[in-house]
Amino acid sequence: MPSQQPFPSDVESFIASCIDSVEQIEILLLMRAHASRRWSAEEISRDLRSSSHSIRLRLQQLVAHGLASRDEHGYAYAASHHADKLVERLADAYRERRTAVIERIFSGRKEAMQSFADAFRIRDENEPSDG
Question: Considering the domain boundaries, does residue 120 fall inside one?
């Protein structure tokens, strides 16, 4: 069995900064595959068989990251040339190493949740503080 290549660091950084769910990847890749099309949240919801409310939230995130645009006709894929290359590499990784991509999405969430939980942790008086 050939050895697995290391996970691409640029894709890992892209996931950490722009992607927070598998659903968001699915939306992004669907829109990229039909880049000239305008989509409503309901159309994407039907196509991906997901909640239109959830799709709307994901679309807003994609717009905020500059990966999609929105006008009166709907949403469209709008990644810059550089971002499109990262989306293409993400698509390749998602197709070839889906589990590794999903692990990276959830590892970022786990770290954020742990940091939040640590903020409420009761410290022993004898324990050194970080600050």
Answer: no
Q: How far is CA 53 from CA 19, 21, 30, 67, 105, in A?
A: 18, 15, 17, 19, 21
63 is a domain residue? yes
pLDDT recorded at residue 116: 44
Rounded Cα–Cα distance for residues 39 and 54 (Å): 15
First to last CA, the chain: 49
What letter would DSSP give residue 6? P
Tokens of 70: 């929105």
Domain membership of residue 40 as a residue range: 9-114
Give the chain's mean pLDDT: 86
Which helix (H) or strand (E) segment holds residue 51: the answer is none
How many folded domains does the chain comprise? 1
CATH of residue 71's domain is 1.10.10.10
pTM for this entry: 0.77
Tens of pLDDT, residue by residue over 66-122, are: 999 999 999 999 999 999 999 999 999 999 999 999 999 988 554 544 444 455 556
